[in-house]
Amino acid sequence: MSHQLWKCFMKSRQFRKWSLIALFVAALTSGFATASVAADPLRIFAAASLKTALDEIAQNFSELHDTEVSVSYAGSSALARQIGLGAPADVFISANGAWMDVLEEQGHVRVDSRRDLLGNRLVVIAAKGAAPLSGLNALPEKLADGRLAMAQINAVPAGLYGKAALEKAGVWRALTRHVAQTDNVRAALALVATGATPYGLVYLTDATADARVSVVFNIPEDLHPPIVYPAAAVSDNDLSFGFLDHLQSTPAQSLFRSQGFIPMGAP
Question: Which among 132, 118, 125 is positioned nearest to 210, based on CA atoms?
Fold first, then answer.
């Protein structure tokens, strides 16, 4: 073989060698990218009062669809602000319509995906075994120097509903100095459960989530606006819509009902 032919032969071998290496690296890199995308969880932002039921529902969805589901719980107001500032979320479940309205007006949720998911009830709680209250007008005297735990009254839905009920019952002024405000309704529950405050105003579903407390008064529904939990997709992720449908499936609604929520049915 001539020297020139030998050089051409070696060059072609080297070319094939480096081409194969390049293809291998490209395939490997592509595999990593695909794995990275597949590993991204479905991100749910949900009102803190949903935690007990939603943890199980999210786990069921994760197993059915072989995908990771990450749920962030907080007051609806805090979550809405985070989404408004660009926090990555796929689904938002609020404890009232007002915060969903804000995000809808800002263009952060898919309007065509929005649905009313659940209802709830407001109750006054105390330590397990505490005597029932005769009514909200008995609270000022019962509290004495103690505190009434409530979610933030000017932002968090449970606090907004609670303040409205106390105002309509005519006892808000007498209770104002007794109120201990918290970032979300589960934090208000914790204050009562740990004995830090003698009474708390929370959702019925929160009361059923902790065996250390009991309901001492069911607040009449006509004392506050209707409690409605809307849900909507924030992203265009197909799984977002699948999760919304899953929330209204028979097993999910049965679980919500067992926790004290009032399912509002399929759209």
Answer: 125
Q: Are 104 and 111 in contact (CB under 8 A)?
A: yes
Contact criterion met (CB below 8 Å) for 127 and 216: no
Q: Express each pLDDT in 133-146 by its tens digit.
A: 999 999 999 999 99
Distance from C-alpha of 7 to C-alpha of 146, rounded to nearest angstrom:
93
The residues that bridge with 233 in the sheet, in sequence order, are: 91
pTM of the entire predicted model: 0.82
Give the H/E segment covering residue 265.
Answer: none
The pLDDT tens digits for 2-38 are 545 444 444 445 545 544 444 444 444 444 444 434 4
Q: Chain centroid to CA 146: how far?
A: 30
Overall size of the chain counted in residues: 267
Distance between CA atoms of residues 141 and 120, nearest Å: 28
Q: Are 99 and 231 in contact (CB under 8 A)?
A: no
Enter the tokens of residue 69.
Answer: 């589901």
